[in-house]
Each structure stands twice: as C-alpha cells, then as structure tokens.
Amino acid sequence: MYLNSPVCNKFERLLNDEIAFAESVLDDRVEDVLKKSKYIGQFGEQMAIDHGIADRPVTMWDTEQEGVKALKKMRFIYLTSQLEAFFKEYIGYRSSTDIDKYDIKKSIQPESSEWSKMYNGKKYKSSTSLLNLHFTGYLFQKRFGIDFSKVLSPATMEMGQLRNCIVHDLGVVGSLEYANLLQHTSEFLNVTLPEKVLLR
User: Fold this and answer.
1) 193-196 long-range CB contacts below 8 Å, 24 or more apart?
2) CA distances (Å), 143 to each of 91, 94, 107, 137, 140, in order?
3) What is the mean pLDDT of the chain?
4) Would 184 disulfide with which of 13, 137, 150, 154, CB 3.0-4.6 Å?
5) Across residues 119-139, what is the average pLDDT?
6) pLDDT (0 to 100) of residue 49
7) Using CA atoms, how far apart are residues 68 and 30, in angstroms rounded to an integer?
8) Tens digit of pLDDT for each residue in 52-92?
9) Would the CA dihedral through 124, 20, 98, 147 be positive or negative?
10) 90 burial level (CB within 10 Å; 0-12, 13-18, 19+)
11) What CA–CA distance (Å, rounded) separates 133 from 158?
12) Residue 109 pLDDT exceeds 50
C-alpha cells in the first residue's frame, strides 16, 4: 500500500499540530478556566436570574459553554476540508502533476462517470465529491490499489455525510435515508437516528 509520501507527511503534521493538540489539550483547559471564572456583584446576581441558577455563583462556563462546544464542530469541518485537500494533492502527486496546474475534476472524470452510473438515482451515495469517502475509496482502490476499509474505520467513511448534516441541516438528521448513511457514526457516538442531534 502506497501511503508514504511528502503529501502524507505534510498533512499528518498539519493535523497533529492544528487539530489533535487542541482536541486533546486546549479544550479541557478552556473549560477548566471558564468553570473557575465567576460573575460577581450586581451583574453576577442578574446573570443568576437570567440563567435560573440560585444555589451557586454563575460561572463563565454557564454562559459561554455553547460557544466552546461549537469549537468541536468547527474543528470537524476544518478537518474535512483538509481531508479533501489531501485527496486532491495526493492524486496530483501520484500523477506527477503540479498541484497549481492540476484540474481535479478532469482528472477523476472516468471514475466519476462510472460511479454516477452505478448509483444513479441515489441522492447521497451518487455524489462524486471527494468528501464522499465511498466514492473516493472506489477511486483510490481502482487507481492506486489502496483499500480504504483497511486504513479507515466505518465511521470515518461517513465523514462527508456528517459534514453535510452539520453544515446544511444544523446537525439534525431529518430522513431515514440520511440516517442509514450515518449508521456507523451513530454507533460510534452512541445516539439513535434520526431522532437525536449529532455533535450538538
């Protein structure tokens, strides 16, 4: 399996530096600081009334936690954008093409046409976006002999559909068809679809 390349090394460093560190260290520190930061005086009394808290001082975590939790969603969307960029650069690298002059749509046209014919009429599955990892897995298997099922978890394969859910539907899974596309994600997050909201 051919995964050792300058492109792979570049994105591995990027994800470790920009996403993994924040996820494993910064979020907990931010939460800890906000929970220790208390509102005082008349303003604190008013905040307690506004938030229905009568048995303790109101902390910044009480008032700002939704914004902090949103960081996870923003980080996930950024992750998927970097994943798409990785796929483009990797295909270009394997094609020995300058990324600045590379036309990704033209390059993957043969596989895109084949995929569209195989899944014609299936709204989500037929997408030839590189963020549809089922399509990209088909492309990589056919072109490079790389089997995504051996390197990616089933939930990871649903990243593109989860991104669409978060960006376009505010995290709400509104149809059974959509829920079926996120079965492994729901198992990983231990939620029941379509009733629950993902990454909220």
Assistant:
1) none
2) 9, 10, 11, 10, 5
3) 82
4) 154
5) 85
6) 86
7) 8
8) 888 888 898 888 888 888 888 888 899 999 999 999 989 88
9) negative
10) buried
11) 7
12) yes
| Residue 194 reports pLDDT greater than 60 | no
Of residues 137 and 23, more confidently modeled: 137
Q: Smallest Cα–Cα separation from 71: which of 10, 33, 18, 13?
A: 18
Residues in contact with 48: Cβ distance below 8 Å, sequence separation at least 6, in sequence order: 39, 54, 57, 58
Whole-model pTM: value is 0.75
Tokens of 43: 């303003």
Question: Hey, CA dihedral for 128, 150, 197, 72, is it positive or negative?
Answer: negative
Q: Which two tokens stand for residue 50?
A: 């506004």
Residue 7 · residue 144 · CB < 8 Å:
no
Q: How far apart are CA 35 and CA 54, in angstroms?
A: 16
Beta-carbon contacts of residue 152 (< 8 Å; ≥ 6 apart): 133, 137
Largest CA distance in the chain: 67
- 72: enclosing H helix or E strand: helix 60-94
DSSP assignment of 130-148 equals TT-HHHHHHHHHHHH---H
Residues in the chain: 200
